[in-house]
Amino acid sequence: MSQETWNDVDAYVAPQLARHDGALSGALAASTAAGLPEIAVSPLQGQMLHVLAKSVGAITVLEIGTLGGYSTIWLARAFPNVGPNGGPDGGKVVTLELEPHHAEVARTNLQKAGVADLVDIRVGRAIETLPQLVQEGAGPFDFVFIDADKPSGPDYFQWALRLTRPGSLIVVDNVVRQGELANAASEDENVLGCRRLVEMLQQEPRVTATVVQTVGTKGYDGFALAVVL
Ligand code: SAH
Ligand code: DHB
Ligand code: MG
Is pLDDT above 90 for 61? Predict the structure, then answer.
């Protein structure tokens, strides 16, 4: 099995199942044109976030790591009665982004997708904006997508626990890292962060969790999935 095969399967399935319309492809194109790194979730991964958010009936979503708002659009569209052409009928994504330029690009993309009113972008270091959310009494969030700097994953997970309720789902992206997750000798800070996260999930009595390995256009990676008890 190779990257070519994984690409072929994504190319076969995504056009059939992922509702990847002009607003989403436009968001990717505008993000690339604005110089943002091309690290958004793939269309099928965006569709998966959408399916998971819908499956918990999410009305409140917290995202850590906005980039150009591509995953944000998938999540906002999971709210009831929100679609490519449908009007907003409640629901809010709070999305945290360090880089003002990324946030600006995302704002335009969200507007073009017709979901800007459903999204609150908070610019700053997530380790500072997360406690602000707690202080404001924000949440509880039904669904949390953690997809920012990987060494901080365990910290973000603890804040996510303070901002969720029993039944909430928490997804942490990019934890398998081409299998490096299993490399006990790794000195890569990203890998170390993901290994600490798995250890935290093992010891954390407030969640039941798993890690799902994935292949596709984004290569070999995977995500952690936790349900709050
Ligand atoms: N969720 C996006 C991709 C996010 S890429 C998608 O799938 O479409 C990761 C983002 O996290 C980048 O935009 C980066 O600027 C942001 N980021 C990195 N460190 C951060 C921090 N400390 N606080 C908040 N955001 C951060
Ligand atoms: C990177 C970050 C991501 O969130 C991702 O999905 C893929 C790659 C990165 O920092 O390289
Ligand atoms: Mg990611």
Answer: yes
Ligand 3 centroid from CA 190, angstroms: 12
What are phi and psi for residue 50, nearest 5 degrees? -60, -45
CB 63 within 8 A of CB 93: yes
pLDDT for 88: 52
Residue nearest to atom 6 of ligand 2 (CA): 39
**CA distances (Å), origin 117, targets 61, 72, 82:** 14, 12, 12
Structural contact between residues 103 and 121, judged by C-beta atoms closer than 8 angstroms: yes
Please identify which residue in the block is written with the tokens 């150009």: 68
Ligand 1 nearest atom to the CA of residue 69, by list position: 8
Give the mean model confidence (pLDDT) for residues 148-153: 98
Exposure class string for 103-112: b at 16+ Cβ within 10 A, else e: bebbbbbbeb
Could you list which residues have their CB under 5 Å from ion ligand 3?
147, 173-174
**Which pLDDT does position 74 carry in this prediction?**
98
What separation in angstroms does the CA of 22 have from each of 30, 95, 106, 162, 227? 12, 22, 15, 36, 33
DSSP 8-state code for residue 90: S
Per-residue pLDDT, 225: 98
Is this structure's pTM higher than 0.85? yes
Question: How far separated are the first and last CA of the chain, in Å rounded?
Answer: 37
39 Cβ below 6 A of ligand 1: yes
